[in-house]
Inverse folding.
């Protein structure tokens, strides 16, 4: 799993690529949390770009909910962008879009 982040016009974009499962969720969580701590003072919105996520299981849902809670503590709304068809199906079934809207 790779995580890249950039701040553009007060929007923190986090591009995830690879698999989000129990084997790499801790490393991914640590990377995203470091970006959040670094950029949140200047961000007004956070967007998880999931275009290059090839696999996600329930651990990935937990990861996203945890990051949602973290950004909420900063007062920053969170969004999901560009999920693949398979990832979108899992996210829809989980009901996560009621917490984290899809752009």
């Amino acid at each position: 799993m790779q995580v890249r982040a950039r701040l553009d016009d007060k929007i923190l974009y986090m591009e995830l690529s690879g698999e989000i499962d129990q084997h790499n969720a801790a490393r991914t969580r640590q990377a995203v949390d470091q970006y959040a701590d670094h950029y949140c003072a200047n961000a007004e919105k956070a967007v998880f770009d999931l275009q290059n996520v090839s696999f996600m299981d329930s651990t990935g849902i937990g990861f996203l909910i945890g990051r949602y809670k973290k950004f909420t503590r900063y007062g920053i709304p969170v969004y999901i962008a560009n999920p693949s068809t398979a990832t979108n199906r899992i996210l829809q079934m989980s009901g996560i879009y009621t917490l984290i809207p899809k752009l």
In short: The beta strands are 2-8, 11-20, 45-56, 78-81.
